[in-house]
Amino acid sequence: MKHVFYILTLFLFVIACNQSKTETPQGTYYGTLPCADCPGINYMITFENDSTYSEIQFYQERSVDALKHTGNFNTSEDGTITLTDKEDSKGMKQFKLENDTLQLLDVSGKPITGNLSDRYLLTNNKPENFSMEAKKENKAIGFKATGNEPFWNLEIDFANKTMKFKTLEGDSIVTPLPKLVKPQDIDAVSYRAQTESGALHVMIIRDECTDSMSGKKSGYKVRASVQLGDADMKDYNGCGEYKGDYRLHDLWVLESLNGEQMDSKTKAPNLEFNLVENKLYGFGGCNRINSDIKTTNNSIKIGSVIATKMACPNLSTEKRFLDAISEKELNFSFSEGKLTLKNSDNTLVFKKVD
């Protein structure tokens, strides 16, 4: 009888151990996560036997390059899978594996609830039309910002002079683009619009910003204050970036014209491109200048350059400079902090002014 008791005890112990054994993920899991300003984020994560993982994210109709990351993971006794190399405050760090489904948890390690909760479930089955191929955007100059919890996005269209704000739940407001205001106390720009349907105030602050879900870094922090109808004003915080080739939008000093270096003893010509206004301002070497401009993917078309009428010893250099840019279309490229404008007749190299 005692022998039977020992066997039964051992049997129950083995069953208990097997029931408490946690599942360790292996293989690749796929899903399309919610996205505030795109149809979805294609996400895939692969777990290896040596407790390492690799993940890839691709923002549909928005990404220039797929975001790739590798690191280590562990599995706790309660079955929570943690990507140990990610910061605790960042999202997309913890998962829970149940049968063949991998559930993405929130920053607190809890299941994500709400109408979109099913979008945070990953499976071994690769969805149709699931792609991680990066595609280059071919869009006009603008500014885009997004935020999480709740998901929202903002688009500023400088060409059509509009601002569009919307949330994933469907709340939205479209306003004309108001006049830019620069606050005196911080490095920022502000747009404040009022319409019959509500109000939209956007503050774009030049400061590094990290997306709380993806970990992607942007060059600007954004605060959008929104009032819809008679509702109270509500603040949204997130990250943003200028689209198109906004590197042009700066002050550039001419270093060389067709290989000839500028005289260091005199003030060199310079150009300041303002892509919001589609204008060029600058100094020709003697006179102040301005012109209308139009940009495409990698070229800029400069209209007839207007200059003041001052006389000075450097007029010959100014004439050569203006002849090279006035009513010309030039390709532009960037390398090591320098801008090159080039066509079949001329090559102009500029250095950025900090």
UniProtKB/TrEMBL annotation:
Domain DUF306: 250-350
Coiled-coil zones: none
Name of the protein in its database record: META domain-containing protein
